[in-house]
Amino acid sequence: MSLCCLLPVTAHGAEQDNPESMVITASRVGAEREDSPQVVRILTHEQIQQQRRLTSDSSEILSNLLPSYSPPRQKMTGSGETLRGRTPLVMIDGIPQSNPLRPTGRELHTIDFAMVDHIEVLQGANATNGLGASGGVINIITRRPEPGSFTQHIEAQVTTPTSQLKSETTGYKTTYGFSGNKGKLDYVFSLGYEQQGLYLDGDNKAVGVDNTQGDLMDSRSYDLLAKGGWWFNDDQRLQLSFNHYTVRGQDEYVDVPGDRTRDIATTSERGDPEGEAPYNKVSTTGLTYDDYDLAGMHLNLLAFYQDYKALFGADNSSTFQDPSIAPVGTLYDQSYATTTKYGTKASLTRDDLWDDRLKLTVGFDTLFDSSEQSLRRTDRTYVPKVDYTDLAPFVQLEVTPIEALTLTAGARYEYAHLDVDDYRTVASRGGGVEVAGGSQSFNETLYNAGVVWRPVKHWSLFANYSEGFEIPDVGRALRGISTPGQSADDFENLRPIVTDNIETGVRYDDGRLDAELSYYVSSSDFGSRVTSGPGGQFVMNRQKTEIDGIDATIGYQFTPKHHGSLSYSHMRGRYDSNDDGSLDAKLDGLNVSPDRLIARWSAQWSPEWSSMVQVNHAFDRSFDDSANGWDRDFDGYTLVDAAIGHKLPVGQVNVGLANLFDERYITYYSQSALDSPDAEYMNERYFAGRGRTLTVGYSLKF
Q: Which CDD domains match (predicted)?
């Protein structure tokens, strides 16, 4: 059992769940973690609830539980947040949230984590899920019906900096829901609302607001989750689910630029920013059918549809300037990205072949995506309409020739087709050039093979090879064209990214002591490296890349009521800067995470009292010299969090203190991910992290 599977105890001293025996639906083959040839984490409901006592930021929750996930930006946009240095495929109940054509970095802000039951995390490239899983898979499983015919739950939280209690710095969050079972019907309904106030850093100064990319600070969010399932008989079930999530800034503050050279962080002051407030609006619908005994097989069918809208704040970036519209430097515009996607996932599994030694899974996935991005205030095309079709059959085998040995192997065929409309680039791209639309098709066969060997009791060794498939940021590539006569038909930068992932490791679990150590190498001969350019516009570079690292976890159950754990992540990233085949330069903080160590102790002092303390340390990291003269070396920091829970005669009170010692620090992204020649832009985004915050909550089930 790994750190993320180390569970706090209940009031009676027993573990809440057993992640070892939980079926990993993201694996597509119904595997259990102990039989997986790669690192798998199960973030349980209890662990997520513990983290929610400290923060509502989904990126921060994942980062607190996964050391190989980047330190959070604490903003609405999480570009640069990676898993093992690569972009993960984010799913909700198996439905992809990642937008392959025009990633906005907001994939983790499509649901309120109050709606989440548990999360499955497959680390490293994953062939069975295909598109977008080059860094792994984060599959968010939504709430399930509570035991009983009808159950209601209410939750309310108040969050404030401890340095001051004012209306402008106070945040509020509330959730109401119900679930139940009636005959063959089961259902879940939940509604959440949150209003966040002004953040303060460890120096009691206002944290800088990001009016352009969007901010969680000074925002409001809503989430509605509804699910209904119908059992036709003991083996057949149909479920319809719907989730709508909106987060929108309130636009009550403007930034006051800092000074990177003097370590003065960006702050905020009351003001009226240009344009409409940034927002994220996402509606996701899924229809799932399961037949658990179709001639001895398990059939799973999923059909889904998602409508996604993302508005970014107004900015007078050099990219948006057009002298035919307004004098250079005076034109404010804001980009608006939309994506509609629908598709299906189908799998058929038989696990009783060869005297129950062989499991066979076959499946077929489809995805149809239509994306575009405009400049809303001037009605200009920023990214043309792009239609994408992905068809992918796959087969997966798992064989256990002897009890101590499990072998896995599989293949997935990816067919991808892109259609691009004719368009004209904005004026900052070579004065605006006409680009002929067109289409490109790609096909790749992805392979995976793994082995798990259990030579002696409690010990297992595992090794895995898997390939990931990813379409590059098509929108970023197309909007950056500045050469006249270019056609989408022969644009090389649209080629897919295929990532090879090799991993080997060892696990130990005797029921009290558990540990896992793994080493991985993730490489791509024609990878994607993102850099920041003038005006903060990101630029995609297609280069050979390689990331390798170590994941280590250890946990110990000191007593039935006390549990401690440690986890560590080390990674390094390199790329070929001059296309000579040699990995001669370091990937920066926009592409890899710092080394991190997380320690956690959970205790159940009595049936009424519980506690959790965690320490999160990010180590210093050095990078190659900046192309624009900036210091991008990372000065690490240590954050300590604590939370307690007290069960009342009616309901429960929870108290959390995040950043217990009020550490003043600059976020990893602000220190190490940016390298723009625009000094004003660099100073505007020199953001400090949140200082000490107090969250008091009350929850009740009835």
A: ligand_gated_channel
The enclosing domain of 296 has a CATH number of 2.40.170.20
Mean pLDDT of 286-310: 97
- Characterize the bridge pairing of strands 637-647 and 185-195: unpaired
Structure tokens at 575: 């790329």
Question: Hey, which residues does 368 pair with through a beta bridge?
Answer: 342, 389
Q: Is residue 17 part of a domain?
A: no
- Is position 481 within any domain? yes
- SS3 (DSSP) at 538: strand
Torsional class of 152: left (φ above 0), alpha (ψ -120 to 50), beta (otherwise)? beta
What is the domain extent for residue 677?
23-265+277-701
Question: Residue 9: inside a domain, yes or no?
Answer: no
Backbone angles phi, psi at 224, to 5 degrees: -125, 120
**Range in 69-73, 536-540, 596-600 with the lowest mean pLDDT:** 536-540
Give the residue ranges of DSSP H helices in 586-685. Answer: 668-672, 679-684
The number of domains in the chain is 1
118 contacts: CB under 8 Å, gap ≥ 6: 17, 22, 42, 43, 44, 45, 48, 141
pLDDT at 200 over 70: yes
Measured in whole angstroms, how far is the alpha carbon of residue 173 from the centre of its chain? 22
In this prediction, residue 2 has a pLDDT band, given cuts at 50, 70 and 90, of: very low
Residue 529, beta-bridge partner list: 541
Within a domain: 382: yes
- Threshold 0.90, pTM exceeds: yes
Query: Is 538 within 8 Å of 566 (Cβ atoms)?
Result: no
